[in-house]
Amino acid sequence: MSVVVDRVNIGIFGKMNAGKSSVMNLLTQQETSIVDSTPGTTADTKIALFELHGFGPVRIFDTAGIDESGELGQKKRKKVLNDLKECDLLLLVIDPSASDFTSERELIEEAREMDKQILIIYNIFNKHDEQKIELIEDSINLLKFHKKIRIRANDFSFRAELLQFILNNFQHLKSDIPLLPAVKRDRFYILIIPMDEETPPGRFLRPQSMVEEYITRHWAYPVSFRLDLSAARGDLHDFEKKRFFNMLNGLGQRPACIITDSQAMDIMSSWCPEDIDLTTFSIVMINYMSGGKLASFVEGIKALSDLKPGDSILIAEACNHSRIGEDIGTVQIPSIIQKKFPGVNVEHNFGREFQDNKNLTKYSLIIHCGGCMISRQKMMARIRDLDSVGIPYTNYGIFLSAMQGLNALQKVLRPWGIRL
Ligand SMILES: Nc1nc2c(ncn2[C@@H]2O[C@H](COP(=O)(O)OP(=O)(O)OP(=O)(O)O)[C@@H](O)[C@H]2O)c(=O)[nH]1
Ligand code: SF4
Ligand SMILES: [Mg+2]
After folding, report:
1. Best mutation site among 321, 331, 354, 368 for ligand 2, i.e. most ligand atoms within 8 A of its Cβ?
2. Strands 56-62 and 46-52: what pairing?
3. What is the pTM for the complete model shown?
């Protein structure tokens, strides 16, 4: 019986003669590919399978240069771009002594379009070429998002450094991120779902149905409670609260956790009993979609304490749903910011890639939605970008909980084992 090994695909890309095959041989520690000064030596992709120490099984693609002209060049280019689709990680080899970097720009754009991880290898043929690197980075704006290393690809003494660089910067896409932390069999989980008049009928929102399915799959009992938010916030507060506690007490067993719509945190932070865990759908989703990086989103909330008038916050929503009434991203969060942080500007980004914003570094904080409508690869790519330029980011659920005070924030993070 053959065993299918789950390998990480690493592709070496770049222009002709940049030193791609030399990088291949450096990694494989043998003459896997032909290295020669003739441009276009690698005519077709060369694949090597092996085990990278400390990393696991990999499949390395040494590709042809994408800048070859003519009909054959076009065929090679097509093949290279096809290989790109298969790769989890792209190593872009750049020879800084070159005079034109259009091909590198195109490769980065193509790869980012596919949410690929990209690492940059500057192959330094001559020491003085290093001076050109700054110019290259000025001309290819997107390079700022990607980690770089400088090596001499034909010098085996750089192998350990290159390996460490890959090891430190590649994120394995974990397939086993639990949606909720430790769901306990035969316990109740309460889903707080405020539906207003504008909530479309016929189905739950994606985070709600995912949580419901996950709890059921784990042999526990999801119980949905439609909270009337305007009643709870208004004159009918006591009536609504009684209705909630009647439901809670009628279960015959204390629920393990309440998962609430973040918008209801003003209510649930005070109603949720001490002995029951509390978290929000938005926190559940961002942890899942980001590959378990909730702690980084929590770290970002600390940026609130440094905010001053004139600073800007970007509210990022990953989809273009119709925004009506008291929409969370366009109405609720901005009005809280206006009240609590006067003079701080709020900008929005819906759907399209906010990382393309040339002024990205002007933001003091990015508040991201749950990201339920994009792929995990895309969400992780967004976070990688923000990490590389060092902009703090947080999430709707974390923000709205923090606005209820430190206790509320600590409570929603407790199920995740995160302490502040
Ligand atoms: N001096 C110096 N020469 C290098 C270095 N890296 C590669 N070379 C030389 O540059 C030439 C091209 O290297 P390759 O590794 O074949 O380049 P490639 O990107 O695979 O080229 P194609 O397959 O033609 O696209 C060879 O003559 C290498 O010996 C380096 O770091 N320093
Ligand atoms: S992607 Fe974001 S804005 Fe769109 S529905 Fe999901 S959480 Fe809401
Ligand atoms: Mg080659």
Report:
1. 321
2. antiparallel
3. 0.82
